[in-house]
Write a structure and sequence with these properties.
five-stranded parallel beta sheet, 16 strands, AN11006-like, elongated
């Protein structure tokens, strides 16, 4: 007990009560952090490894007190550890895949090795190429020719071509090489609602087609050109018959130049000129664009087919000099060599 103090002006015999609480314990010293150490063996995490992971342990002067369970901390470290690498096959980042954590657990996701399919070959590709080509022909070979002047049998689905890249490459060969394409003029009007005057479609669909398919033009084997003049009632902006001749049609001239550049494997080319005047050698712009096309066989068609009915027409209206020039220039010739490999001349293909 402390000694009794006297207050000034108070009686000397009145004692001052002691307010000290004798039952209160001594204050504890502040906790200090345990020194961190590097993680040891990967077989089992040590106490220092648990502390190094970021879970701080506290200790007093006499013994250490850990606020959380060490067993749970070890499970967290083991779940985050990557699988051990093998000597022959090292685990890479692409071989490890994260799994979503369990709902409500709050634990980090586990890493597992992604599984690979054992067999990636599709049953369709196990068939021989001959059988696959026969299947393609059922889809993309038309019974009649494909006429752009009367497009009635163009309803071929393209779903098979969009299956995969290999099927697209194989099926397009059947689509373009087995069909007979007839390029002609469409005698009907078209335009936008804001146009004051609609015009004849003409050879615009043909030009759009050859531009759109691009390199597939080299797969086409047979083409027939049915060239007609513009219709007066459908082309009021063309005032004279000379302006309405097909030899001045811009879409037709561009289409012929595109065929000369890309249609490099034509087997047969049919020509039919059905204009108001005969095509002559003096029509230089048209003749020059036409002579750029090459084919193994060039033929001037004597009749044409329209709307699925073969209608006899007049002979192709062209000069004899035009036919002779076309047959001499447009037919592709092969080089004839002797046994020593020397060039001895040329011969017609086919």
């Amino acid at each position: 007990m402390r000694s009794q103090r006297r207050r000034p002006g108070a009686a000397t015999n009145v004692p001052i009560p002691d307010t000290t609480d004798t039952t209160s314990p001594l204050p504890e010293r502040p906790a200090r952090k345990v020194r961190r150490t590097n993680q040891g063996s990967k077989s089992a995490p040590s106490d220092e490894a648990i502390d190094d992971f970021g879970l701080v342990a506290f200790s007093d002067s006499e013994n250490e007190t850990i606020p959380q369970s060490r067993k749970r901390k070890r499970k967290v470290l083991e779940s985050l550890r990557l699988p051990a690498k093998k000597d022959d096959d090292a685990t890479t980042a692409s071989d490890v895949q994260l799994q979503p954590p369990a709902s409500g657990s709050g634990r980090p996701p586990k890493r597992v090795k992604a599984s690979q399919p054992q067999n990636t070959d599709c049953g369709f590709f196990k068939l021989p190429r001959e059988l696959r080509d026969q299947i393609y022909s059922y889809f993309y070979t038309a019974d009649k020719h494909l006429s752009f002047s009367a497009p009635q049998n163009f309803s071929m689905g393209t779903g098979l071509l969009r299956t995969c890249t290999q099927i697209s490459h194989e099926a397009r060969e059947t689509l373009y090489s087995t069909n007979h394409f007839v390029f002609g003029r469409q005698c009907r009007r078209a335009g936008s609602y804001w146009d004051y005057e609609w015009k004849e479609i003409g050879f615009l669909p043909v030009r759009t087609f050859v531009d759109m398919i691009g390199g597939n033009l080299s797969l086409i084997k047979r083409i027939t050109l049915i060239l007609e003049d513009a219709t007066p009632c459908l082309n009021p902006h063309l005032k004279t018959n000379e302006e309405r001749r097909f030899i001045h049609d811009a879409d037709l001239l561009l289409m012929l130049r595109t065929l000369a550049e890309r249609a490099l494997n034509l087997k047969r080319l049919g020509l039919h000129f059905h204009g108001r005047r005969r095509v002559e050698v003096s029509d230089r712009q048209f003749i020059q664009a036409l002579l750029g096309i090459r084919a193994d066989e060039v033929e001037f068609v004597r009749n044409i087919t329209q709307h699925w009915v073969e209608i006899p027409q007049d002979d192709s209206k062209h000069d004899a000099g035009v036919e002779r020039t076309c047959l001499q220039t447009m037919i592709r010739r092969k080089v004839v060599q002797n046994a020593d490999g020397e060039r001895v001349g040329t011969a017609e293909m086919g």
